[in-house]
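DM from R.C. (forwarded with permission)

"hey, sorry to bug you on a friday — could you get me a structure for this? deadline for the figure draft is monday and I only need the backbone to look sensible"
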Amino acid sequence: MLALTSNDEYALQILQESGAVTAEQVEKARSAATVAQRGMSVVDMLIHENVLSEMDILGVLAGHLGMEMISLQGVDIPPEIRDMVPVEIARRYKVIPVYKVDNTLTVATSDPFSFDSLDSLRYVLKCNVDGAVTTRDEIKVALDRYYIVESTMDAMMEEVADGTVNVAIDGGAGRRGGRHGNGRRRADHQTRLPDHARSVPASCFGHPSGTPGEAVPGAVSH
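My reply, with the result:
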């Protein structure tokens, strides 16, 4: 699994300064990660050892950085918002657009330290981009729901035509009500999308390049 953050040591520093973990717990997790030799980060080892949940860690980091915590479960992203981020861009940067107010698009990311990615999105999408934080599982489910790559869709249609697949998309509504992450209760600091995100005037919507669905030059698909 992709590491929870792109800056493990900074995340550990924030977690210790906030009192979420002790130096002893961090060193124990560091030793365990070294012994495991599975490429697991120290932050992810804290999750693996049940010291903290993913939601606990993201909540502390988001609060420190002044970022919003959101849940994508049960939320339908409007097509006009979804289409602002082409599939290859969404999958490359692992982001989900959630709402736009004026010229600022808010995207969900599982990495609170994705500053370079947000800068790249501002350049590519030609609008201001803010980040909100959610879990890796919610990003994966939303990508599979809203941004199915063409090759995957073609393969699914072929299987349907051959009668070899049961058409039930696991990444959609069927998973939205499930338990989150490692099964722990959601942290109190997590919120649903704000009211203004559910009732944004139609005038606020629009494709930054002026042409919905326009391909982005130089984008790399993953």
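R.C.: lifesaver. The longest helix spans residues 23-36.
me: no worries. The longest strand covers residues 96-101.
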